[in-house]
Amino acid sequence: MDVHSSPGLWDALFLLSNAIVAGVMPKETPRWWVKTRTGGTWRDLTIADDASEDYFHDKLRMTRTVFNDILAACIPFIQRRLTHYREPLQPDHIVAYALYRWASGKTFDSGTSSFGIGRSSGIKAVEDVTNAILAAYPDKIAIPTGCRLLQVVRAFSGKGFPNCYGAIDCTHIYVDKPANAPSKNYFDRKQQFSVVAQVIVDLDMCIIDVFVGYPGCVHDQRVLRNSSLLKRAEAGNIFNPDPVVLPGGVRTTGYLLGDNGYAPRTWIVVPYGGSEQTEDIAFFDTRQKTTRGVVERAFKRLKGMWRLFLRHHKTNMNNLPQQFTVVCIIHNLLLEAGVAFGERLLLDRDHEGNTVPIDLGLQDLAQPVSQASATRLPSLSAMLCACKCDRNYNQAIRIEDG
């Protein structure tokens, strides 16, 4: 008898397949290479009570409500396939680990164990959450328009800089020696490996533009020259097409505040600089530096909360720009939700267990200018006009970058 044509055998196979699909038959014992999941940090985060809110904020830098909002936005873009060996990781588990990785700065080897997952699962989780947040919040980082633009311009005008759109500066993201890129290109002037991030913020520290990815050896001016910001600004796609006439007759469509690392342009106002200054010029430079200091305070909050981008870390250079952009999106979300930045996030412990302030690698932060302190606005506006009309300033605008 041909066993392959036996009706009884085919019936048995049919019944067996139905039993497996219906869940009657037990799952096969997981293989030895399937990592057993434990509790740790993840289990503690799932405890919902009043005492756990501080723990939740400490580990993920946000409230449970904000986390749930981000999770809901990411779920449509995070999918996991059911395998024969075990249940897939749930979206809340995946999103929580990615946030923990960015907040703590821990390596994949040490961070994944506290979430009960393997190293490869952790790498995949960060990649998936990065792509999900970029897809869920495509317009969260954008030059303001409409009513929001009016609010931004009015705030800067209150500090003495009418029709100003924001403050621009660069920061360095420190990494270990790159393995998949020419390492000598990433060696910066501080003798460290880094990547440059160009950021624009408004007076609320909200990030309205970001460009990241150039090696640490590249100067801020060259980063600007190769960014889309320059092309959009020169093409008239950023600032108001209708010029605003400032006191003194100067016409401007809008501008940014920058430091002396940038060449003066019609849309970037930098300090006069120099060691010998008149009283008016010194006042203008001081006010410009103080107002521009909002970008340094934004870096302080960003890097203080998301420690991965503060310390040296091993990373894939191919997706580092996307990860930093995602953290900037979360930065804006937390500002909108009113999540406070605790100064304790600027403290760490040394090798002896002593509490020490962390080194943010930033300049001395200027104190914020209060609205009440902007009383000399006529003279400050006049200085801004003089700055934009100054013969040397206009000559500098025409100089080719190099």
TrEMBL record:
PANTHER family: GH03217P-RELATED, PTHR22930. This is DDE Tnp4 domain-containing protein. Residues 1-26 form the signal peptide. It is found in: Nucleus. Pfam families: DDE_Tnp_4. Keywords: Hydrolase, Metal-binding, Nuclease, Nucleus, Signal. Belongs to the HARBI1 family. It comes from the Eukaryota. One of its GO terms (cellular component) is nucleus. GO terms for molecular function: hydrolase activity; metal ion binding; nuclease activity. InterPro entries: HARBI1-like, HARBI1_dom. Residues 168-332 form the DDE Tnp4 domain. It comes from Chara braunii. Its cofactor is a divalent metal cation.
